[in-house]
Amino acid sequence: MQIAVAILNWNGKSWLEKFLPNVIENSPEAVVYIIDNASTDDSVSFVKTSFPQCPVIVLDENYGFAEGYNKGLAQINADYYVLLNSDVQVGKNWIAPIIGKMEQNPMLAVCAPKIKSFTNPEMFEYAGAAGGFIDKFGYPFCHGRLFDVVEKDEGQYDTDCDIFWASGAALFVKSSVYQQLGGLDKDFFAHMEEIDFCWRVKNAGYSIQYVHDSEVFHVGGGSLPKENPFKTFLNFRNNLYMLHKNLPDNCYKQIIFKRRLLDALSFVNFLLHADWKNAKEILHAHKEYRCAIPLLEEKRKVIGEKVLHTQIYPHSIVWDCFVRRRKRILF
Description:
By secondary structure, the chain is an alpha/beta fold. The chain has helices spanning 13-25, 43-50, 64-73, 96-104, 175-180, 193-203, 229-246, 252-272, 276-303, 317-322; strands at 3-9, 31-36, 56-58, 80-84, 88-90, 108-117, 132-135, 140-142, 145-146, 149-150, 161-162, 170-174, 207-218, 312-313.
């Protein structure tokens, strides 16, 4: 059995200096690969000189998170891929609990570890926490994180369970399933591509689980800070892409219509706070979505049968969070 931990790098020498020694030390059963997205710093030469045991795959341009991984993983021969952000510290024995479960269950295709904050290790981390879900309108949330409210880890999620999506910050996947489904959707570039992939995994009949015995600690925002308007554009556009591709035939048009109304409220909210840049990016996202509809229709056909999975929260987390004032959704 071969396990490949694949770290996608773009001008991230400082992250590699800080975290790569930890990943190598705590991953004795795996080969740690660096996939470089045409960095312009000296991170490639740094890895080759300082960590010659780590194979480096150098891409000819910056393909973004999605296609960068697709092109890099296509050059790696392994039974399991572990997609790992460069700004992640891993715990001891973080691989074995997950691979053990995946080996026992042929239909378990994707797993997520517990993701906590590197800067505040008692807290969950925004991007993944204790496993991801979405609500009926496509808004993602996690056990341990609802919008910007992040919980302290007090053992409340120390039970393995089925989830809807695993964070791309630390995602375990069987290579056969990754290749079967065509990997991440390159048209997303970055953000929500892992949720889209996990949705396709679910539509293909596989399961996804959170495994609490595996822990990692994520800095977050290493490549694209939260306040960057480009991130707003990617999140709004890619969410519409994801919904259009994966929702069942009998409801996708109605749900997308309602989601676009909710996006309009977000647009108004940005205007009321004089946040012109982010407001503009919502308009930009919807324009690109409209242009992409013919392509998205073709992708729907490729995906095949689509169902409303039990890990999709059947209500609105916007309503529950901002009207009902709920700070946690157990699902």
